[in-house]
Amino acid sequence: MLNLCIRRSILHRTGIFHCSFTITLQPRYMATLREIESRLKSIKNIEKITKTMKTVASTKMTHSQKAMEKAKVYGLSHEELFIHSKTKVPENPKTLYVVCSSDKGLCGGVHSQITKMTRKLIEKNPEGQIVVLGDKAKMQLSRYIPKNIIMSFSHVGKDIPRFSDAQAIAHEILLSKKEFDTIDIIYNQLKSTVSYIPIIRTVYSEQVFKNSENIDVYEIEDDVLSNLKEFSLATSIFSSLVESHACEISARRNAMDNASKNALEMIKKFQISYNRQRQIIITTELIDIITGLFIPLICISLIL
Q1: Confidence class of residue 251 from pLDDT cuts 50, 70 and 90?
Q2: Please, are residues 100 and 244 in contact by the beta-carbon 8 Å criterion?
Q3: What's the CA gap between 53 and 59, in Å, rounded?
Q4: pTM above the 0.85 mark?
């Protein structure tokens, strides 16, 4: 905006009237315009990042779903073993909960759903102990039930889980020498590319499996049975981790897609606001310039 400061002085000695004008530019809307421009630039940068992350997640999703289909065979084979042998959970079982999570975020409610389900299970069974796979679930559960966590594993979810990783986890759990009737593995099951639910996969101890109703159908030696216990736990953890990883990738793709769409909407709104503010500045300056041209004539006419 143009601030017009009129200084009038009459030179009495010469009898000539002198009128001087000082024009100063005051950017009333400049601060607002710069702020909008700065925010617009930040949102555009964020939109580029989320769009790139969506592309990366879309590429990974295909590989993770293929790996999930292959890993499901391992998990279902042991579930069928327990079903055909009619293995049942004993009364008041001592249960260990294995929570499948990862170290990465920006994937919607993947980790929070798992931790909510775990907290509900601990409310029903306060003596239950927890093994956490992944830092995200560990951070959330440590706020509410830190005493129930007996073991945790990090560096989970960086890539598609391998069977060797699950085998190492199962080996560490069995090395703890803690006795459990059942081990409940809590993980996310992929229902579609946009939906998933937390569920439980149960692995039974060697003693509970021996007490199964139809155990005689299988001719299993004692040394084989002990190896079957570790292999059953490892395959169940492996299948659960791979499916949880597929859910995480799918959820991250959807989250980044929504974030990109929201960023584009914000860019449109800020662009309109930016153009409006710029138009106000241009219009105001034009008005001040036009007004400034007539001020000398008005000033002279008033004095004369």
Answers
A1: very high
A2: yes
A3: 10
A4: no
CA dihedral 155, 159, 161, 166 (to 10 degrees): -20
Average pLDDT over the chain, rounded to an integer: 83
> Minimal CA–CA distance to 237: which of 146, 131, 136, 83?
131
What is the model's pLDDT at position 167? Answer: 92
Q: How far apart are CA 45 and CA 107, in angstroms?
A: 20
Tell me how far CA of residue 298 lies from CA of 55, 119, 131, in angstroms. 65, 80, 86
pLDDT digits (tens, 9 = 90+) for 153-179: 998 878 899 999 999 999 999 888 888
CATH of 66-254, one of 3.50.50.60, 3.40.30.10, 3.40.1380.10, 3.30.565.10: 3.40.1380.10
Instruction: Calculate mean pLDDT across residues 80-94.
Output: 83
Give me the count of residues in the chain: 304
| The two structure tokens encoding residue 256 | 């980044």
**Cα–Cα dist 292/296, whole Å:** 8
Domain boundaries, the chain: 66-254
